[in-house]
């Protein structure tokens, strides 16, 4: 009996805290297999986790993905370059602008197109708006998974504001097809920038409000601090990127360290996990990094509005994609769920020879078995929600 | 370091690699036999320390299959692209999952979609497609099955008439 007890003390959980959970039956040593998903509300889509449990304690996690596989890479081989953009939208449907930007930058690098500053600034603007919208869903559903309804409603109200702005711009609420190869679909509607400024003034006080409601709530901290600690070594070994990596204390943000689309012109601070209530890289850190990133995104949006230069947004859109340069490019961009890498191979025809999308959420799911063994099943729900996966991006 | 310098350092250590100045991104071509040695060197050499495998892709070319590794170092903040070729008759490449654990899932995906086998892989199953799927869809000669468990996979006549009524 002593043996099982030692074996099962969860990573990063103090023995005292573990004793509080001592109602767990773990004397038998008998293992049970439990299927979590694919229709489980806490798996954020259609993810199936096969759990091996000893009482309430998870001893092994095996993720099964593919339920939302929509053959992005196969379809990309059968349509022309501009026709791929709507498919790229559907990878991470909560941050479509960021998906479009990654793909479009890859094609532009292949063709040697350099867009003007207005296009660059507007791309940054819409991507950061979309990033806030995406984080709103991530944080809202995180609260929901842990039993807090109210923050979700407040955050969806903010996201609704963003969707309205982007709808006015592109005509669509989620799948925009707005960023085009060499430019944008259209210039801004009249008065749009004023509405974005209004949104910034609306959003800025929402973040302290969220902190009061959820972030520093004692129950929430108890549920998330010291749970699911991802060390920087594990994060790097499994290719975890984006907010999850920064929450583990690795100071790396593509927007600052390998800037694209003019990100070098903006002042902002990448947010790192500091382990305020537990160890660095726990669920609370992954949560708070996203909250603080929303603040940073607001800073970038305000700067983009201030510096918005004049220019023609369709200036560099090529007239024809019939003959493409032969070659291959790899572009990585900072999407809300980690690094989006697009590997594009062209054989000179009007359709790509191969498109490979490397998504941040895919790698985050692959790391689950490495840092969520030995936790309670209820804590696994907190961990899965904290890595913020969108199955559309995992399965592509 | 630039990819060219990395290639020179690998060659100086007695590894047979070929630097290819392809545009826009250059890459290093590695023979299948020395892939593991090159990968270990890239990971462990303090001047290189490529601690992260960012992307692993499988490609089907007319003459051979190709596996492309995009590596990144958080320490030195440099990138390099590796490529290995394998024959159409025996598409087998040694696994690098013991060097970069993230390769485990990327290699499963390359096996699933392109059909490249990874020698020594700890868990060589399909990942995105159903386990009993036949064929590898990203192969250029792949013919998708017409049915899967009695579910028709070819386009079915639409129940909506063409005039929209």
What does this structure look like?
The complex is a heterodimer of chains A (396) and B (165). Chain A has 396 residues and is an alpha+beta fold. Chain A has 17 helices and 8 strands. In chain A, the strands form 3 sheets. A 3-stranded antiparallel sheet of chain A has the order 1-2-3. Chain A has a 3-stranded antiparallel sheet with strand order 6-7-8. In chain A, a hairpin with a 2-residue loop joins strand 2 and strand 3 (57-64). The model of chain A is unreliable at 1-7 (pLDDT under 50). Chain B has a single domain, classed as NADH:ubiquinone oxidoreductase Nqo5 subunit (Beta Polymerase, domain 2, 2-Layer Sandwich). Chain B is built from 3 helices and 9 strands; from the N terminus they run H-E-E-H-E-E-E-E-H-E-E-E. In chain B, the strands form 3 sheets. Chain B has a 5-stranded mixed sheet with strand order 1-2-5-4-3. A two-stranded parallel sheet of chain B has the order 6-7. A two-stranded antiparallel sheet of chain B has the order 8-9. In chain B, a hairpin with a 6-residue loop joins strand 1 (18-20) and strand 2. Chain B is elongated, with a radius of gyration of 20 Å.
CATH superfamily of chain A: Cytochrome-c3 Hydrogenase, chain B
CA gyration radius of chain A, whole angstroms? 22 Å
CATH superfamily of chain B: NADH:ubiquinone oxidoreductase Nqo5 subunit
**At CATH's second level, what is the architecture of chain A?**
Orthogonal Bundle
Strand percentage of chain A = 5-15%
Give the low-pLDDT segments of chain B: none
Biggest sheet record of chain B: 5 strands, mixed
The average pLDDT of chain A is 87
Domain tally of chain A: 1
Strand content of chain B: 25-35%
Please write the CATH class name of chain B: Alpha Beta
